[in-house]
Amino acid sequence: MSKTNPPRSLYTLLGAIIVMSVLLVQGGWAYYNYLAQKQQILASMRKNSAQSIAGLQKNLSAFIDAYAVAEYESLIATGVELGKHFAIIVHDYNMCKITGERAYLTGRIRNSQGEVVNYDPASAIHKASLARCFYAESAPLKSGANEVLGKITVYITGEGMQRAMRKILRDTLINAVIISLLLITLLFIAIRHSLV
Hints:
By secondary structure, this protein is of the alpha+beta class. It is built from five helices and five strands, in the order H-H-E-H-E-E-H-E-E-H. About 65% of the residues lie in helices and about 15% in strands. The longest helix has about 60 residues, at about 10-65.
């Protein structure tokens, strides 16, 4: 006894169910994967910032206490380069006592070409650049006697994260499309052989 061919509407119904199921599952996976990787990048960014601050807190306090601006500025420049940060700014409360200013700000910042330059607190461009940063973290700088000598702030732009997220999104979508097409094809072949 030979099998009768199933009606075309059954193929259409099964095809629609397969396509919708695969697209829903793959879409959910792609969205979850994108969010998980975004969280990993943010956590890595925060960890990198915290490590830079912790290292600089230990080293800068002695120089601030000794009014050795040139020495701690070279440490800041190294911190910007090694940490791949946009800027590191120090509020030196000790120098405020000498200069009589409300705030003595110094540090390093990247210019539009990506070069590390001296931070100019009077520059509107530098202020605007810092205001546009994606992430900033501050910590106090303390002496051995636990007196607050100043504050250090690390600034990070979102450009690196945006580049990484665009790559992740592109890779995730490509993987989702390839896996979806493979699943749909295999399921159609399996159903066709089962029903014929």
